[in-house]
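Bit of a strange request maybe. I'm writing a small parser for structure token strings and I need a real example to test against, not something I typed by hand. Could someone generate the tokens for this chain?
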Amino acid sequence: MADISLFPDGVDLVITAVERHPKQRGQYQVSFGEYMLLIHEDTMIKYRMLKGSIFTKQELEEIVLANEKQRAYVQALKYLERKQRTKKELAERLRQKDFGQAVTEQALDRLEREGLINDELYAKQWAEQRISSQKKGRAWVKQELRQKGVDSLLISEALAEVSEEQEFESCLAVGRKKWRQTRGECMDKKRKTGAFLMRRGFSGELVRKVINELVREDGEADENEEPFAFD
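Reply from user aminoacidic:
Good idea to test on real output. This should exercise your parser:
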């Protein structure tokens, strides 16, 4: 796209040609004699940029800004078509495409108003899926959502909606599998299984409960043995 600052001031700028860009879908080359702008189809239609139409440089500057906002919005929609993302993730993607901060923020605000991005809902769905289906602990999920730029309060609210029973069942299921795969004496199995569960983000207290349950299931509990505690 030509630099709009290079367009002449104080003269009528007449569109001499409008051509579809051969490689960029939805983009049009709008020519003003020797000058040319690359404009998104939606912007071109909105401002009726047809051959023979006349604009001033000031009007074109406003159109170029509106075009950037529209391009950022459309690019964000493309990312959302693949999978749901947080506001921070979309902002990073748009910056990689060289969109400015102001344009990026306005595009994201529009997506929020339209309900197409919602960090609160995203966090709740992520927490439920990761704990119940992926068998991850709260600490793991909390760190993931932080990295995705979700607000701390929204993370806390999302994790609060996952019951302690849900997390216990997930920890027990993945712990049971690890326990059965681990060879050695009971203490070795406790240590290795406990460390494995801690790495998956489960709390020490929850790991203790699960390990003691696995010992009972295995019939290896000793009346004189102290309950397992994992720090």
